[in-house]
Write a structure and sequence with these properties.
mainly beta, eleven-stranded mixed sheet, nine-stranded parallel sheet
Length: 215
């Protein structure tokens, strides 16, 4: 079954479904969407966004406010004695093109990409890489952590931060000048960028992957 709903240009939406995709174009308000069995795709949202998928990707073109995006593996019920099926959505991702407020992004089986973050970011994944670009000075602390891929952060010119980057068995690289605090080694980098600012914590808990900052 398929629903197509037309609403006024300025409208808040609250949509939930247990068996399909949710697709929205430009929304002049807040968006709260949840699907248990499909993708979430939203266009330009002028307000805040809360998006959750238990069986697909989450894609957001832009948000004028905070973004809370979660992607979780769908759990299956099965009878006794039957072979347990594998999860259907390994590798699913969260893709946010532009966020005007803070970002909270979590996925248990894929990558996270934020093309333009204008405030703090809290992003975690247990099965993919994280890429984020900060276009403005964040007001609060940020943390980007993965257990199964690399972490790459790009900073616009002039952004200051207290950097704490660590990688387990991979390496830490920085194209941005960092005033190092303490000793420096291949797997960690702690110091100030452009005189310091909010804390920027990067964690890579997987072997052979990297944490990286770029200008």
């Amino acid at each position: 079954m398929h629903y197509e709903i037309k609403i006024p240009s300025r409208y808040n939406i609250d949509v939930k479904t247990s068996g399909g995709n949710i697709t929205g174009s430009d929304i002049g308000g807040n968006a709260d969407v949840h699907t248990s069995g499909g993708d979430v795709k939203l266009g330009r949202v002028s307000g805040t966004v809360r998006a959750k998928s238990s069986g697909g990707d989450v894609t957001i073109e832009s948000s004028g406010g905070t973004v809370n995006a979660k992607q979780q593996r769908r759990r299956h019920r099965h009878s006794r004695g039957r072979r347990q099926p594998r999860s259907e959505n390994l590798g699913r991702s969260i893709d946010i093109r532009r966020a005007g407020g803070t970002v909270l992004a979590h996925t248990s089986g894929g990558g996270i990409r934020i093309d333009e973050a204008m405030d703090a970011v809290d992003a975690t994944t247990s099965g993919g890489s994280i890429t984020a670009r900060f276009s403005r000075q964040p007001h609060g602390d940020s943390r980007l952590s993965t257990s199964g891929g690399g972490v790459t952060v790009e900073l616009a010119s002039g952004i200051g931060a207290e950097l704490d980057a660590r990688a387990s068995g991979g390496g830490v690289r920085s194209d941005v000048p960092v005033t190092v605090q303490g000793s420096r080694d291949e797997d960690s980098l702690v110091g100030r960028i452009n005189g310091g600012g909010p804390r920027l914590t990067l964690r890579n808990l997987g072997r052979g992957d990297h944490a990286e900052t770029r200008s």
